User: Which sequence fits this backbone?
């Protein structure tokens, strides 16, 4: 599939290769963040240290589907 890179984030709609993912706290399993990731650039699963309101601290968040 050929992708025109210039069409990303042009404010006129979403191109097919973007994927919405939820980041889940690994300690309390709260779904704290939703992000959009580019499938082509981010193949592996994300693991990010983010603040969790429920835990009251920064915890490791992993993507969920
Ligand atoms: Zn948590």
Assistant:
């Amino acid at each position: 599939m050929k992708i025109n890179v210039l069409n990303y984030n042009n404010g006129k709609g979403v191109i097919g290769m973007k994927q919405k993912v939820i980041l889940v706290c690994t300690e309390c399993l709260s779904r704290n963040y939703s992000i959009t990731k580019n499938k082509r650039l981010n193949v592996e699963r994300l693991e990010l240290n983010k603040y969790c309101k429920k835990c009251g601290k920064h915890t490791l968040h992993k993507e969920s589907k």
